[in-house]
């Protein structure tokens, strides 16, 4: 672990430079620049709100804010993992020329998505003001679920980046998987729908409880919108899922990284 920390410290400036480059490329030649990180989520939340709360009649108070708080967390994970899939392959030219820790590439994509999420957090606050959502002191606890989902996403990104080097079909399958994952997470529909919908003898909630993103999204909503502090059980579940995927991702990446050069 000490060796890893020393290596990370040595290359931290490279990581920051790569993240800064991605930010500049994303908003290059855009008149509004970084403001799109705020405007885009707000506009998307308004569209979703009109479609689902009016046309489909979902009975959810403060629907636009409800959607946006969930989408903020899920979209971070989705963006980070989707971009991390091909990060090692895309960095092949650097890997073949100079030595640098290969985990820099998926970590760069995850940090970049995390920075975008921080910008979009402003959109959540603006939408809550528009919706008239009451503010509670628990909103100050918003970094906790963000840290949980960041650790989880780093581990998953390392795992997916490793798999995609050897099995390129993973990239195609993951786009389908992430769509199904989104619908299994209560982003658009109210949580009450999970207990009301049955699949045979099981409720949908009994299946969704195996979805880590359900806990991260719910945790964020509880502290930001509801003024509720999740209990010890929820914190243990979130921490356990995050650490499990981080250890799994680091183990898989470390075990296979020396063979990357043969496949990229």
Automatic annotation (TrEMBL):
The chain crosses the membrane at residues 31-52, 64-89, 110-130, 136-161, 173-189, 234-253. It comes from Solibaculum intestinale. The keyword Cell wall biogenesis/degradation does not apply. Pfam families: ABC2_membrane (PF01061). Keywords: Cell inner membrane, Cell membrane, Membrane, Transmembrane, Transmembrane helix, Transport. Its main location: membrane. It is a multi-pass membrane protein. It is found in: Cell inner membrane; Cell membrane. InterPro entries: ABC2_TM (IPR013525), ABC2_TM_bact-type (IPR047817). Belongs to the ABC-2 integral membrane protein family. The keyword Cell cycle does not apply. This is Transport permease protein. Residues 32-256 form the ABC transmembrane type-2 domain.
């Amino acid at each position: 672990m000490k060796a890893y920390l020393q290596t990370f410290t040595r290359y931290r400036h490279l990581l920051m430079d790569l993240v800064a480059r991605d930010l500049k490329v994303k908003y290059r030649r855009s008149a509004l620049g970084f403001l799109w990180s705020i405007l885009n989520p707000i506009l998307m939340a308004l569209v979703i709100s009109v479609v689902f709360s009016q046309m489909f009649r979902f009975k959810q108070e403060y629907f636009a804010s409800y959607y946006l708080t969930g989408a903020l967390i899920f979209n971070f994970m989705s963006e980070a993992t989707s971009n991390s899939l091909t990060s090692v392959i895309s960095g092949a030219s650097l890997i073949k020329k100079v030595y640098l820790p290969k985990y820099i590439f998926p970590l760069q994509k995850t940090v970049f998505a995390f920075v975008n999420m921080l910008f979009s957090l402003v959109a959540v606050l603006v939408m809550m003001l528009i919706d008239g959502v009451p503010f509670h002191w628990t909103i100050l606890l918003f970094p906790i679920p963000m840290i949980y989902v960041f650790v989880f996403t780093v581990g998953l990104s390392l795992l997916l980046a490793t798999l995609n080097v050897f099995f390129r079909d993973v990239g195609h399958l993951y786009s389908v998987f992430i769509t199904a994952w989104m619908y299994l997470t209560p982003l658009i529909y109210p949580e009450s729908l999970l207990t009301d919908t049955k699949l045979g003898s099981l409720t949908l909630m009994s299946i969704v409880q195996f979805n880590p993103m359900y806990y991260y999204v719910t945790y964020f909503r509880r502290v930001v919108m509801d003024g509720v502090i999740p209990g010890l059980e929820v914190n243990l579940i979130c921490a356990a899922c995050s650490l499990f995927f981080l250890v799994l991702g680091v183990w898989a990446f470390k075990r296979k990284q020396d063979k990357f050069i043969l496949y990229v």
